[in-house]
Amino acid sequence: MKCTLQVGMCVLILSGCAETPSPPSSPPTSPATPEARKTDSAWWTPVAAPEMQAHCGSELPEAIPEVNGAGVSLIDVDGDGVLEILLAQGATLGAPESGPGCRLFRRQGEGWADATAASGIEVHGWATSATPFDLEGDGDSDLVITRIGNDVLLRNDGGRFTDITHEAGFNSPGWGTCAAVGDVNGDGFCDVYIVNYLDWNFDAPLPKDVPFMGQQVLAGPRGMAPQGDRLFLNAGDGRLTDVSERAGINDIAPGFGLNALITDLDGDGVQDILVGNDTTPNMLLRVVSDEPLKLEDAALGCGLATNADGSAQATMGLAVGDVNADGMPDVFSTNFSSDTNTLHVSSAGGWFADRTQAWGLGLPSRPFLGWTTFFLDGDLDGDEDLLILNGHVYPQATMQTMDSEWAQPVLLLERDGNRFARRTSDLDHWAASPSVHRAGALGVLDDRASVPSLVTAPRDRPMEVLRASASGPLQRCTLQLVDDRPGIGNREGHGAHVVIDDGTRVHHRWVTTSSPFQGASAAQLHATVGQGAPRLQVRVNWPDGPSTTHEVPCGPGVVRVRRSEGTITEP
Amino acid sequence: MPCMTALTLMLAAMTCLVHAGHAPLAPPWLKADIGPLSEGLDLDETQRETLSFLLEDQEIIWLQTQQALRRSINAQAAGVDLRAVEDLWRAAAQHAREAARHRHEVERRALDGDVDMAALMEARRLAEQASEEARRARANLSVTRWQADPGGRALQQATALAHRDLEQRTNERILVLLDGHQRTQWDAVRRAVLRGRRLRLLALTNGGAVNLLAEARNAEGPLPESCELILSRWAQDTDLRLEALHRALFEARTATTDQEAAAALGRVDELCGRQVDDTLEAAHVLGETMPSLAPLKRSILSRCYPATWGPDPLDSLLTEARRAQAEDVIAVVLQARQQLDDQLAGRSATWMGVERQAQLMQRARHRGMHVPEGQRNQWKLIAQEMRDMGEARRSLVQGQLGHLQRLVGPKRLAKVAPDLSISPEDSPTSGPSGVPVNER
Question: pLDDT at position B257, please?
Answer without folding.
Answer: 64
